[in-house]
């Protein structure tokens, strides 16, 4: 069966890349909506630098500075309304995964009249959107490389992806200098999110030689760089390796899907407001133990790359990043496990896992980290 490979139209990667944003956006549109989080990007000075490079190329820019962590359907509607009101013909998401996902969905649904919730519930986009440009400021989610946005419905609560091939970014500007101001905690959790994505896409049932090359190199880059960046946030070489690793993991997951970690992480995050990178990090060791026998050759390659048993390596890395091996701090109720399992079973990520994850297996893994 042939593999279809989907990726952004243009990638600008490396220190100083932000300076090229304006001229490439100008080729896509004349008025941009810049979508960010609520304060950190402006406080770091990055918002002003983005506005300057756009202005220098004659691109008029409107701002939406209100994307929350785990963005909701309602937030996506607000971004869509802001774009429409200002007649913006390109949407730029600058921030972490939440910002990129909200901006991506808003750009992709720009031609639609139905609310975002309809698409969250399964409606397929029919009208063309506007170009989406990704400027990631963390090294973790890989959202710059994917065709989906993970959006929350807080009323249930639940997280699901809205996806379409047309959502893929027309331009990605990945400048590791934008990650130099990340605090250690964010560096650790986002870095582990990227590592989880690399491991899961590497072992996915949908993996191919192309995605294996991306995901395996991502693991190689991330296993050392995340630790170094956590210890010294100003280490540009480590930040650069982490940025490349995150991008490669994103490209791999976009084309190979993920696995059991992400299948379980979404309902946990939605119900208990656990940071996505943290919950993925905690789930990775038990899921690796569960999967190992189903893909021995690939785990042997991971063992060799890490210089020891891969699961033991990951547990030691979590220790060095001050990430616990359980979710005790979030007081997940044992009686919620059956509901969490039920919510995880339809996940496309879970379906891509190399070993069939029965409800009993899912429950056992969840109980092991409570």
Question: Can you describe this structure?
Answer:
The chain is α/β, with parallel strands linked by helices. The protein folds into 2 domains: 11-178, Rossmann fold (3-Layer(aba) Sandwich), CATH 3.40.50.1970; 182-368, Dehydroquinate synthase-like, alpha domain. It is 51% helix and 11% strand. It has 16 helices and 8 strands. It has helices at 21-26, 40-43, 46-55, 73-86, 97-108, 116-120, 184-203, 209-231, 236-256, 260-272, 276-291, 296-306, 310-320, 337-344, 348-351, 359-368, and strands at 11-13, 31-36, 60-65, 90-95, 132-136, 148-153, 158-163, 171-174. A 6-stranded parallel beta sheet has the order 1-8-5-4-2-3, sandwiched between helices. A two-stranded antiparallel ribbon has the order 6-7. A hairpin with a 4-residue loop joins strand 6 and strand 7. Helix 7 (184-203) packs parallel to helix 11 (276-291). The radius of gyration is 19 Å and the shape is globular. The N and C termini lie far apart (40 Å). The relative contact order is 0.11. The mean pLDDT is 95.
Taking pLDDT < 50 over at least 5 consecutive residues as the criterion, the unreliable ranges are none
Element string (H = helix, E = strand) = EHEHHEHEHHEEEEHHHHHHHHHH
Number of domains: 2
- CATH classification class of the largest domain: Mainly Alpha
Question: Outline, from the CA principal axes?
Answer: globular
Please identify which CATH superfamily of the largest domain we are dealing with: Dehydroquinate synthase-like - alpha domain
Largest sheet: 6 strands, parallel
User: Going across the major beta sheet, what is the strand order?
Assistant: 1-8-5-4-2-3
Helix content: 40-55%
Give Rg in angstroms: 19 Å
Mean pLDDT: 95
Number of strands: 8
């Amino acid at each position: 069966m042939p593999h279809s490979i989907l990726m952004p139209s243009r990638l600008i990667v490396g220190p100083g890349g932000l300076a090229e944003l304006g001229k490439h956006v100008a080729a896509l549109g004349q008025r941009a909506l810049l979508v960010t989080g609520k304060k950190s990007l402006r406080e770091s000075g990055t918002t002003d630098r983005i506005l300057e490079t756009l202005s220098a190329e004659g691109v008029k820019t409107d701002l939406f500075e209100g994307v929350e962590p785990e963005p909701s359907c309602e937030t996506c509607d607000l971004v869509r309304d802001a774009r429409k009101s200002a007649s913006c013909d390109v949407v730029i998401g600058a921030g972490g995964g939440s910002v990129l996902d909200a901006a991506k969905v808003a750009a992709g649904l720009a031609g639609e009249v139905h609310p975002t919730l309809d698409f969250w519930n399964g409606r397929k986009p029919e009208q063309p959107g506007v170009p989406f440009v990704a400027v990631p400021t963390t090294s973790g989610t890989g959202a710059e490389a994917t065709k989906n946005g993970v959006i929350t419905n807080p009323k249930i609560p639940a997280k699901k992806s809205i996806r379409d091939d047309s959502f893929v970014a027309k331009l990605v500007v990945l400048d590791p200098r934008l990650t130099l101001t990340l605090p250690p905690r964010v560096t650790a959790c986002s870095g582990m999110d990227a590592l989880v994505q690399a491991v899961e896409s590497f072992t996915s049932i949908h993996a191919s030689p192309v995605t294996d090359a991306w995901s395996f190199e991502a693991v190689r880059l991330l296993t050392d760089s995340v630790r170094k960046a956590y210890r010294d946030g100003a280490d540009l070489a480590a930040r650069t390796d982490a940025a490349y690793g995150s991008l490669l993991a994103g490209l791999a997951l976009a084309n190979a899907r993920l696995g059991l970690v992400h299948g379980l992480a979404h309902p946990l995050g939605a119900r208990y407001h656990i940071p996505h990178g943290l919950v993925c990090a905690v789930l990775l060791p038990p899921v690796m133990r569960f999967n190992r026998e189903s893909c021995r050759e690939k785990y042997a390659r991971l063992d060799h790359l890490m210089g020891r048993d891969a699961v033991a390596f990951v547990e030691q890395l979590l220790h060095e990043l001050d990430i616990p091996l359980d979710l005790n701090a979030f007081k997940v109720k044992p009686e919620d496990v059956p509901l969490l399992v039920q919510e995880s079973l339809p996940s496309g990520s879970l379906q891509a896992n190399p070993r069939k994850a029965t409800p009993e297996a899912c429950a056992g893994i969840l109980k092991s980290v409570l």
